[in-house]
Design goal:
- The complex is a heterodimer of chains A (180) and B (173).
- Chain A is α/β, with parallel strands linked by helices.
- Chain A has four helices and seven strands.
- In chain A, the strands form two sheets. Chain A has a five-stranded mixed beta sheet with strand order 1-2-5-4-3, with helices on one face. Chain A has a two-stranded parallel sheet with strand order 6-7.
- Chain B has 173 residues and is α/β, with parallel strands linked by helices.
- Helices cover 44% and strands 10% of the residues of chain B.
- In chain B, strands 1-2-3-4 form a four-stranded parallel beta sheet.
- Chain B is globular, with a radius of gyration of 18 Å.
- The chains are: A alpha/beta (180), B alpha/beta (173).
- At the A-B interface, helix 4 of A face helix 1, helix 3 and helix 6 of B.
């Protein structure tokens, strides 16, 4: 059933579908990024396909494999009535990491896209609320990119030297002395 | 025998009362909370140590038990809670995540709460068995009873400054 969906997608979008593959029930199509919003909307609205649920929206960084484009945004679609699934991948370039949002089509895409922005730095055009979701505002960088050092710390709490002295002396941080 | 004998005995008595009536503030964030809860069960009864009464307000507590992972985002909150607890206060870091970051070495976990607040007893384990925690509790009680004297703290400060100077000069191993 999902195979039919994949074939219909290929016939409808022609060469915007860059490649397809299938492995043990996982039908996947790689689509050009500029046609992605149109494709997702078509998949959702077409009568026979009815992909009315976006189960996941995430991204992959292919820096170590040296692929271009560097990022790929992955969408997992599911049809509740018909029970078939489809995975769409859209390549996003490193120079201008932008792609259209699908939060107007699926409500849960809002937070998923905020997470992708927070951790990968991929911007979603026309997103209603483009801010970080997991990390704090003072954080600099996008940590799930492969060129972000994994154990780099950006602490919110820093101990000034005077505080450390007080602590070694056994006094409280607020410099309160006990009677005994 | 001078006045030091009386005040020394008084200090001992007060410390005895303190160590057998610890009110903890359970700052529980993660899976170590399960073992924390197990302590309060009938098998590993912590009530026999007098430490059974959790106070969920820092103003009413004197022992801060940091149980579980503390993320960078949570660290200022932990610091604030610690500052709100009145003296005398003690901190127990429960589990490896609180003691040293645990198996996490990434952008979001604070590698040890002693980068944020001073810790009295560290309990290793992922999660620690309740017997380990009771051992740590007894250790803490001993620490409360033989509370650091002023001269010992001065000694610690001198040693710490010496260590800093050596590190700055590059002679420290």
């Amino acid at each position: 059933m999902s195979r039919q969906a994949l074939e219909k997608l290929e016939t409808h979008f022609g060469d915007a579908v860059l490649s397809t593959h299938e492995h043990r029930g996982d039908e996947t199509a790689v689509i050009a990024a500029d046609k992605l919003h149109e494709a997702v909307q078509w998949l959702r609205d077409t009568a026979g396909l009815d992909f009315d649920m976006l189960t996941d929206l995430t991204a992959v960084d292919y820096l170590q494999q040296g692929k271009t484009p560097r990022f790929e945004v992955v969408y997992h679609l599911y049809s509740v009535d018909r029970g078939h699934r489809l995975r769409l991948k859209a390549g996003v370039d490193e120079k201008s990491p932008e792609i259209d949002t699908v939060s107007d089509l699926y409500g849960n895409a809002n937070w998923c896209e905020r997470e992708v922005w927070d951790l990968y730095g991929i911007r979603f055009r026309n997103h209603p609320d483009p801010r970080r979701i997991l990390l704090y505002e003072e954080f600099v960088g996008h940590p799930l990119r492969k060129d972000y050092r994994k154990d780099r710390r950006q602490p919110l709490v820093r101990r000034p030297r005077e505080e450390l002295e007080q602590i070694v002396l056994g006094r409280g941080v607020g410099n309160k002395r006990t009677l005994i | 025998m001078g006045v030091e004998f009386t005040t020394g005995k008084l200090a001992d008595a007060v410390n005895w009362a303190r160590k057998y009536s610890l009110f903890q503030y359970p700052f529980v964030t993660a899976c170590c909370g399960m073992e924390f809860m197990a302590l309060w069960g009938p098998r590993f009864d912590v009530a026999r140590f007098g430490a059974e009464f959790p106070r969920f307000s820092p103003r009413q507590a004197d022992l801060l038990m940091v149980v579980g992972t503390v993320t960078e985002r949570q660290a200022p909150i932990l610091k604030r809670i610690y500052e709100q607890i009145c003296e005398p206060k003690w901190v127990v870091s429960f589990g490896v995540c609180a003691s040293s970051g645990g198996f996490y070495q990434n952008y979001s976990v604070t590698p040890g709460i002693d980068l944020v607040i001073p810790v009295d007893v560290y309990i290793p384990g992922c999660p620690p068995t309740p017997e380990q925690v009771l051992d740590a509790l007894v250790m803490l009680q001993q620490k409360i009873q033989d509370r650091d004297s002023w001269s010992h703290r001065q000694y610690k400060l001198r040693e710490w400054k010496k260590g800093e100077a050596e590190q700055a000069a590059g002679t420290r191993r």
